[in-house]
Each structure stands twice: as structure tokens, then as C-alpha cells.
Design goal:
CATH class of the largest domain: Mainly Beta
Number of strands: 14
Number of helices: 3
Helix content: 10-25%
Radius of gyration: 19 Å
Strand content: 25-35%
CATH architecture of the largest domain: Beta Complex
Distance between the termini: 67 Å
Strand order of the largest sheet: 10-9-11-13-12-14
Number of domains: 2
Shape: globular
């Protein structure tokens, strides 16, 4: 009898996504992060779909593998609008029912038009992610590049934020194997953009470029929160 109770308890834990300690965050926005609808904490260890179901009223399709509606906002082929999700700034590459959240992950759902822009491999809106938690529990080294000696102090502060190292350099190193923040205060205006290299799969190296005052990244929340990119 004691063995049966233990088996049932383990099965219950597995159904709740047990085994991973800590918390993750779920955001729901629309129109490229213009409107914030949900910002909630959930236990890590859940699948992304389970986590979303805890914080919002959802409807799914294809046997529960894809999201059709969140809190009454429905995707539509005719309107060319749908729900897209990111984990730590990386666009999801699988069903949300197949991605299990790790401690610190940021799961972000955005309802937007896909006309002219179906895929967005990486976005800046979850910074300092993906530098801190990467994708699927795997992280890459982080580097913060600056060009002028006067930038060293603030570059080191940004490097501390992303758990990386500040380096003086005038160009990106070849064969990039780290996630990089480039600080560029040489031009007027402010922008914050993100790009991948030849490999655009989630977890691959990314380059974030900030043009403007580097202290923008030290704000709480950081510059560009909830946005795919900022150009102004």
C-alpha cells in the first residue's frame, strides 16, 4: 500500500511539472509589446503551455499544442494576426506544450500581425535576457563591447548586469560564440536592436546593439522593456 501511495504522489508531481525549483515569469502583450496584458510569476518546471493556462483563459488547437486564444483575443488567418511566444527573448521553436520552464525564465506571449514579418528570432524586450538564462536551461558567455576608454566604467556595470565581461573593441570578433552587447554612443538618437548570426535557432549567439547612453540599460526596467526593438 505504501508503495502505491508513493507512485501516485510522484505521478501527481510530474503532472504539476515538479522537479524544477524556483519561479518563472509569464508576460502577455499585444501589438509588439505596446500593450501589457499580463505579468505574473509561476513555478518553474511547468511547460510554457501549463504556465500560460495558470495566468490566463486560453483556448488551444491541434490537440492542445498551439494557442488559439488568450483571454478572449483570438488568432485569425483572415486578419493575419496570431499569438507568438518567446522564452528569454528567443522566439519559440516548438509547441509551448513541449518547452519546460527553468528557474528565471521569462515566457512572453504577444498578439500581433504576421503580415510581412512571420518570424522574429530574437527581441530586446526581455533584456537582460537571454544573457542570464539562455534557452532550455543552457546559457552562453556574455560580453559587453565598448570603443572609447570613457565608456569603461558603465560598460563594466552593464557587464555585471548580464553576468559577463566588458571588453574594449572596435568590431565584433569572428566566429562569435558568446552573447554580445555592443555599446555605441557615437551617433545621435537612441535605438536598441537584436540580431542572431547565421544560426537563428533559439540558444544561438545573439548581438544586442544599444545606440545612445549606455546607462539606459541600467534603468529599472531597462530601456526597451516589452518591445521587439526600439528605434527613435
Amino acid at each position: 500500500m505504501r508503495r502505491v501511495v508513493l507512485v501516485l504522489a510522484l505521478a501527481a508531481l510530474a503532472g504539476c511539472g515538479g522537479g524544477e525549483h524556483g519561479t518563472a515569469t509569464v508576460w502577455v502583450t499585444r501589438d509588439g509589446g505596446t500593450h501589457l496584458l499580463v505579468n505574473r510569476r509561476v513555478p518553474s518546471g511547468l511547460t510554457a503551455m501549463q504556465a500560460l493556462d495558470r495566468v490566463a483563459d486560453i483556448k488551444t488547437r491541434y490537440a492542445g499544442r498551439f494557442v488559439q486564444s488568450i483571454d478572449g483575443i483570438d488568432g485569425s488567418v483572415a486578419a493575419r494576426r496570431d499569438w507568438f511566444y518567446f522564452v528569454n527573448g528567443y522566439e519559440g521553436d516548438r509547441s509551448a506544450a513541449e518547452y519546460r520552464l527553468h528557474d528565471g525564465d521569462v515566457e512572453w506571449w504577444d498578439f500581433r500581425s504576421w503580415e510581412g514579418r512571420m518570424h522574429v528570432p530574437v527581441v530586446v524586450g526581455a533584456f537582460p535576457e537571454p544573457f542570464l538564462h539562455g534557452f532550455d536551461g543552457k546559457t552562453l558567455p556574455a560580453r559587453v563591447l565598448y570603443a572609447e576608454p570613457a565608456q569603461r566604467g558603465v560598460a563594466e556595470r552593464v557587464a555585471k548586469l548580464v553576468h559577463g565581461k566588458a571588453m574594449r573593441a572596435n568590431s565584433l570578433p569572428r566566429g562569435l560564440t558568446a552573447n554580445v552587447v555592443v555599446l555605441d554612443d557615437s551617433s545621435s538618437g537612441e535605438s536598441f536592436t537584436a540580431a542572431t548570426g547565421h544560426d537563428s535557432r533559439p540558444g544561438s549567439p545573439v548581438v544586442f546593439v544599444l545606440r545612445g547612453d549606455p546607462r539606459l540599460l541600467l534603468r529599472v526596467p531597462p530601456f526597451g522593456r516589452y518591445r521587439y526593438e526600439v528605434r527613435r
